[in-house]
Amino acid sequence: MILGTGIDLIDIRRIQDSLDRFGSRFVQRVFCPNEIAFCQARPDPAAAFARHYAVKEAACKALGTGMRQGVAWRGIELFREPRRKPYLRLKGGALARLETLMPQGHDPVLHVSISDEPPYATAIVIIECRPKDVFS
Ligand SMILES: CC(C)(COP(=O)(O)OP(=O)(O)OC[C@H]1O[C@@H](n2cnc3c(N)ncnc32)[C@H](O)[C@@H]1OP(=O)(O)O)[C@@H](O)C(=O)NCCC(=O)NCCS
3-state DSSP helix/strand/coil percent for the chain, to nearest 5? Predict the structure, then answer.
């Protein structure tokens, strides 16, 4: 069952501007250490940070809260592994909100898809719930 969807589109130049103006203050406030290391190693760090930013906004829309009610930027973390699709983990208030959405006896499954075509980056997040496997 689908419990929530969120989408976001962002202008990479806006993120470049925040990087230029606020530097590590902006980066540390919004992104997790794993995300920072990943983005800084990319040929175009601003585009990579913009894709992550779009994921966080899409996820907070899928949760139905925006960045409010305890849902915070670094509570939504994107992971990538070579040649695997990216995946999300929630922490803190974002995880608490996810748990309130879950019907009893179900586990959450988070789907994320990302794209960019400079100067824009976009992401979509879908929150699914699946019945717990009683045999596992
Ligand atoms: C929910 C949120 C992500 C919307 O993002 P936005 O950049 O303002 O606007 P977008 O154009 O991407 O999205 C707007 C749409 O989001 C949807 N939306 C608004 N609040 C929402 C919520 N709580 N849950 C799900 N969707 C929501 C609405 O459909 C809205 O469209 P509408 O105005 O036509 O109704 C935003 O309110 C938010 O919490 N942003 C965090 C921003 C922030 O803290 N910035 C500081 C910079 S570090």
Answer: 40, 30, 25
Give the Cα separation of 128 and 5 in Å (integer). Answer: 9
- Residue 66 Cβ < 6 Å to ligand 1: yes
Q: Which two tokens stand for residue 82?
A: 């070579």
What is the β-pairing status of strands 87-90 and 76-79?
A: antiparallel
Strand partners, 90: 76
48-99 pLDDT per residue, tens: 999 999 999 999 999 999 999 999 999 999 999 888 899 999 999 999 999 9
- Reported pTM: 0.93
Q: Whose CA is nearest to atom 24 of ligand 1?
A: 64
- Map out the domains of the chain with their CATH numbers: 2-131 (3.90.470.20)
